[in-house]
Amino acid sequence: MRIIGRRGKSYNNSCVKNIFSYSSRSYSKEVSRSALRQGIDGPGSIGLGEARKLFSLLHVTKLGHFDNTGDIPQFAVPQIAFFGRTNAGKSTLISTLLANSLPKRQREGSKTPGSTRDIAFYSAGGSRASKFVLTDIPGYGYGSTPDQREMIVQFLSKSLNVLMAYILIDARVGLKSVDMQVAKLLDSNAIRWRLVGTKADRLKEVDRSTVLHELMNFSVTSHPHLQEQEVFLTSIKITKTKKVSGLDELEWSILRSCGISANEALRNPEFKRAKI
Ligand SMILES: Nc1nc2c(ncn2[C@@H]2O[C@H](COP(=O)(O)OP(=O)(O)O)[C@@H](O)[C@H]2O)c(=O)[nH]1
Ligand SMILES: [Mg+2]
Fold first, then answer.
1. CA of residue 89 to ligand 1 center, whole Å
2. pTM higher than 0.70 for the full model?
3. In the CATH hierarchy, which fold is given to the domain comprising 13-262?
């Protein structure tokens, strides 16, 4: 099932409108407002549910920090990295994605911009083997240090097997030129990236759709010839009136980037036995 978009087709606002109208027929209201896709088969509610369930069954180990004094760790499994300005919500999002499996004391996230000083690695998988690594990259922009920026450059040039980078954007702040520079840096290191608007709970509904459009616009103009386009909007706080969470969409995308089928993995005893 193709939602919209052909190779080389340029993007315009009417495309986005089509995606919305298509999505709202096919998916739940919440899903259509937490992700926009172009040229990608959508997960459907079963796919989203399976991704959610698999994440809740993962075994997670925090692998410690890299602080510029040693070699960048390399992993045989796919690595997914989270970039963003300081305070964009990277550590909180990773902790929330892994909340079912990660001890409280190992969760991060702070009100102080630049508080994640090192690169942190979280290995996730079944009871027997790691399947992928989620990487929390120190923030750039306000409150960051030259050391942290050097770490980002080192990470990009030396890491192998980074199959996807998510660039987190505080949805109230929007895209800044530094985010665009990081996207370019990822491109020049041949690392695929997706944009994720965070803190959607702090926005009114109409603003949420504006943010999604802004992110999609940048994504498409950055890669006009790329067939697949996908952007997200997430919130770790779900209230009665502002129901966006977008986490299951992101989980689905992460698994897809790693080539993991949640449906198959859930039939594997390695995951069935895992502690919830
Ligand atoms: N309202 C709201 N606050 C969030 C959300 N995600 C993160 N935050 C807050 O944003 C601040 C910065 O988050 P953090 O994860 O430390 O950002 P980082 O510097 O990118 O790692 C913290 O006070 C978080 O509680 C969200 O979805 N909604
Ligand atoms: Mg952090």
1. 4
2. yes
3. Rossmann fold (3.40.50)
